[in-house]
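Why do we care about 3D structure at all? Because function follows from shape, and shape follows, mostly, from sequence. That is the central idea of this module. The next example makes it concrete: a single protein chain, its amino acid sequence, and then its structure expressed as tokens.
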Amino acid sequence: MRILTAEEFFAERKQTSPTITNEEKLDRAVLDIIHNVRKQKDSALINYTEQFDGVTLDSLFVTEEEFEEAKTQVGDEFISALNEAKNNIQAFHEAQKEQTWFMEKDNDILLGQKVTPLDRVGVYIPGGKAAYPSSVLMDVIPAKIAGVKNIVITTPPQQDGKVSPYVLAAAELAGVNTVFKVGGAQAIAALAYGTETISKVDKIVGPGNAYVARAKKWVYGDVAIDMIAGPSEILVVADETAPVPYVAADLLSQAEHDESASAICVTTSAEQALLIKTEVNKQAEQLERKDIIKPSIQDNGKIIIAENLHAAFDVVNEIAPEHLELMIENPRDYVELVKHAGAIFMGHYSPEPLGDYFAGPNHTLPTNGTARFASPLGVYDFIKKSSIIQYSKDALLQSADSIITLANVEGLTAHANSIKIRKEEKNA
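And the structure:
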């Protein structure tokens, strides 16, 4: 894990030209999958599942019997924890609901905005080697609150041809009973364009590997997507009050996602920086996923020493991290300095995993600097808005000349005529 000053960090950012990753091979593979799914539909999904997951499917659906079997495989402790998390997530996202509204102006003018939920949403849940029931809750609950009536889940099957019982338990708890045993770019193609079994959706949400992310990028425009997620990121701002073991543990909690994950600490103390580096190396040796953690920390881990907290937040806003922890004294006094971050965790007892699983705010967050312009997944991602305009005859005629002038300036004389014909009717 490198230690460098804030000045060195900014100097490196200026000198490093953005690199264009050679993704041509990935794109060719993804586009080939999308083409084949559009052409061969279900048969392509079955073939790709056998090719990539080593599973021969009799049916793409998770059956009712499989849902029932899942209930017997998950313990009461898991269900209890899942229920608590669900309640917290639901309460938080209820506050995001938007309503249709109207405003009345003089001369019988009515303006407004109609809020309508999307008709059909597809949720992608990563699977195969691991289970992510938390992502089921995070992606489904906001859609439910928004009023989406049709929600389906796609997820890769395990080696036994079944979906993780933990994912199925979460799906049922969240109110989704249509789950397809399909993963990868082929699942995204199926959701975007439809097959004999899977109906086309209006929007696809949920994280996935590089193939899933690239497929989402290619189908965008034919269908809406939430975001194109990159490797996980955490940035911890730590002053002298931050417990070193806590800082190290939180950095490692993100490094374990994959080798490309980014774990960065910004501190105001050179002494603290050395202590954190030593503790990170010590804890990493004791962790189960150290084979993933070590390359992540070695390649992407940094500890940046800033002159003061204001300088530390300059680094924060330059990086625009997915997860930002403020392990400093009186964090609320500094939160206004944060301009770009997906989620902000304040204090020594608000570690990032609290947000991943339990607190309530969504854990589907913008990565790779996109927090500069993007937001966490929310209820607002599952609605669309229509403008409402109603003018009385008198109100239109009062504005007619201005509208005609603007239309003529743009050379859109048919627009102008649409107004003129009503104006002339009055004068006739």
